[in-house]
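ingest -> fold -> write
write: protein_1
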Amino acid sequence: MHRLKQERFPETRTIILHEDRAELIVNNRKFENSTFFKYEDILTGKKFSSSKSQPNYGLYVISRNTTIVLFFLKIFGVIESWSSVLALLCSTIIMFLIHAFTFKTYVELETNSDEELVLIKDNPDESKFEKFIETLYKNRKEYLKKTYYSNNKHINEETLHWLLDQNIITQHEYDIRIDFL
């Protein structure tokens, strides 16, 4: 059983590869949710999304823009003291650091189900993440081939075509099985 644990404040995502399905466990400070994805429902496509919306980004933008305005007001002599400019500059830097720390890039693996199989990209690191994704697709392929092709003596043309479309079997394996039908 393979497992990938992804920790990024404030949540932890764990994906476990079982023999016939993948399980995604999302745990944050408010709840823990476990979702199962049958290998039949996991497709081969990936979508990359930049980041889920972070509420602190809006505060960062507001404080940054206000600091810029106050800086120019001070330069042109409209305000006398640097204290308000420096205070907002400090808050801008703090908000930027918070945003940079919580910024997440996600990878959504395409599925046929209503649930989303979403992982944090390159977490814990790029090589472990890519190796795990390869293992997920390898396990999926082995399970589907064993279940629908190797152990199925009464396979139909529609199932064979689906296996070929999903890259579970080769064109040669498809042709051989079709000739027997």
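write: protein_2
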Amino acid sequence: MCMREQFPVFGGPPLSTGIVIALVVIASTSACRPYGISHRTQELLFSLDQPCQTQCREQINAIKELARRADPDSVEPLLEILQRPKQPKVLRIHIIRTLGHLKDKRTIKPLDRLLRQETDDDIRLAALMALSRFGPACPVTIFAHALYQPNIGIAGQAARILERYSAEVVVGEIIKLLRTGQV
């Protein structure tokens, strides 16, 4: 196929369509890593910005692939998407699970905030389970505080998580919570 169309570039000599296409491809591939984010990770994050179709299948699959890729550059965008109002519950739960899978310490505070402030029990339980994946990196206080959740299922799960810690540590954290009036 012969491409005879010509495109002037910044006042210089005209370029053929083939050269323009090649320049666009080169520019787009080099611009795909503006913050160290791979091209595929950018594509996956972009698909999360699209409106959900039937049961958010495309977005859920993108989130699962982000978890498999374990790309730490996806943490901040996932946290931002999680904070958006009116996100479908199923999407939020999958994002929370992925954040737990990534075990990035930047997610501990936002997940703790969800556990304490979210009104939906399924979201709070997902946040608790994601936090439990951090092991010793996650403060025991979070789980001790979760014992006082109004939902017995969440409180019971928090108790099971706290069984991993020594009794002295758990009791000490509960006493701190009681003394400071946090529960």
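write: annotation protein_2
Confidence is low (pLDDT under 50) at residues 1-13, 15-35.
The longest strand covers residues 6-8.
pipeline exit 0
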